[in-house]
Each structure stands twice: as structure tokens, then as C-alpha cells.
Design brief:
This protein has about 240 residues and is mainly beta. About 10% of the residues lie in helices and about 35% in strands. The chain has two domains: about 110 residues, Phosphorylase Kinase, domain 1 (2-Layer Sandwich); about 100 residues, Elongation Factor Tu (Ef-tu), domain 3.
Length: about 240
């Protein structure tokens, strides 16, 4: 008999195990057959009589995730289905790790990020779309398309961000402060949901998206071959 310190709160997959008691240890979950990530920016648009476009953000940004599975045995299926049923539809948030964003694209930076985070060089206001970050022993750099989260002064800052541009000591925008050799300036989308403090951690290794089920009805189909067909739709929450 043994005790455990936490229940699994990440959707079970090959890297995130779950036990029969729901603990974050045990059998691996099945891999995904397909993953669809959508970036939703709701925008109000209108045009003047001269044709000039006027646009403004109408609501918050949200990531949406659709996951499809290959046909599963009952053992494989139950690890996923009962994890989700326990969340009672969209009532209880959990986290999901997307395999295409689990590690950064740059090999040197991926090795560095597996055991280190980059730190904010100073305070950053909510709404900002770029940040100067660094580490005394940084190797490589983040890449356009990498996903990251932030850990720091706001413990409930769970928003996920995607890198859209990267400035370095040797490649930076004229008129801006040049990053040092141990810094990079990342541009990202969406803008910061919350303020960031100096020294807050930018997490690029296995960034987790906080989600709920998009649909309160979860159903599956069982084929004559005894295999379960299942998929789910998720939406980011803060």
C-alpha cells in the first residue's frame, strides 16, 4: 500500500501517466491520432464611406484544441474517458500537453529548456506583445512557432503564448535596445493576459494549456471489433 501526493490533472498521454486511483503515476495514456489547434481572435470590423477599414478587438483571445484518437482497446479508452467524466463537462479545468509543442524546435535551446527557464529582464505590463528575456547560460534561442507559458508573480497566470518573432544580439530591430549575448527579445501572440514581474519564468519546455471541454456531452462509439472510437474538443480558459 502506498500514498501519493497529487491526482493527475494533465490529459493522460504517452508522457503523462495515470494510475487506477487517478494519481499522476501508473499507465501511460494513448497517443493522439490527430491534433488541431485554432487561434481565435474575435474582431469587429467596419468600413468608412471611403473604404478605410476600422477594426478593434471584440473579446479575449482563445486557443481551441481538437484531438482525435486511433481506435482504442477498453483499457486504453477508460484511462481517457473517466479522466474526462470526472471533470463533469466544462465545470472543471485541466491541462493538455500538445506533442508538437512539447519541446522547442531549436535543438540546443530544447536541451537548455529541459532544465532551465528564461527570465524576464524587467517588469512587463499586461497587453504587451514582446518581452526581453534571458539566462546567464542560455544555449540556442526560441523559434517562431514555439509555445510558452509564464510562471511568476501571478500564480493564476495560465495563458499560453506563441512566438511570432525573435530578436537576438546579432539580429535585432533598428532603434530598439539591442539584446545582450545572454538575452533574446520574443514577440508573441496574444498580448499578455496579466502583468509580468522582473525575473518571472518563461517556460518553453512542455508548456501546458489550461482547458475545459467545449461540449458538456461526451460520447463514444464501440465497433463490432471491440475497439472504441473517441475524440474531444477543448477550449482554453484562464
Amino acid at each position: 500500500m502506498s500514498s501519493f501526493s497529487s491526482f493527475q490533472n494533465i490529459l493522460p498521454d504517452p508522457n503523462n501517466t495515470i494510475g487506477t486511483a487517478g494519481q499522476a503515476a501508473g499507465s501511460t495514456g494513448p497517443g493522439y491520432a490527430s491534433v488541431k489547434l485554432s487561434s481565435e481572435n474575435q474582431t469587429l470590423r467596419s468600413r468608412t464611406n471611403s473604404g478605410r477599414l476600422i477594426a478593434r478587438a471584440a473579446a479575449y483571445h482563445s486557443w481551441k484544441v481538437d484531438i482525435g484518437y486511433n481506435p482504442m482497446t477498453r483499457v486504453e479508452f477508460e484511462r481517457i474517458y473517466n479522466f474526462l467524466i470526472q471533470k463533469r463537462g466544462s465545470l472543471t479545468p485541466f491541462f493538455v500537453s500538445l506533442p508538437q509543442y512539447r519541446i522547442p524546435q531549436n535543438g540546443s535551446f530544447a536541451n537548455f529548456a529541459s532544465s532551465n527557464n528564461l527570465d524576464a529582464a524587467g517588469s512587463i505590463n499586461a497587453g504587451a506583445t514582446s518581452a526581453l528575456i534571458g539566462h546567464s547560460s542560455i544555449l540556442g534561442t526560441p523559434s517562431v512557432g514555439d509555445l510558452f507559458t509564464i510562471s511568476g508573480i501571478n500564480s493564476n497566470h495560465k495563458k499560453a503564448y506563441m512566438v511570432t518573432r525573435v530578436e537576438t544580439n546579432s539580429d535585432y530591430y533598428t532603434g530598439t535596445t539591442r539584446p545582450s549575448s545572454t538575452q533574446v527579445r520574443v514577440h508573441f501572440t496574444p498580448g499578455l493576459a496579466k502583468a509580468v514581474g522582473s525575473g518571472d519564468d518563461f517556460v518553453f519546455h512542455n508548456p501546458l494549456i489550461k482547458v475545459v471541454l467545449s461540449n458538456d456531452i461526451q460520447e463514444y462509439s464501440l465497433g463490432v471489433n471491440g475497439l472504441y472510437q473517441f475524440g474531444l474538443q477543448l477550449e482554453e480558459v484562464l
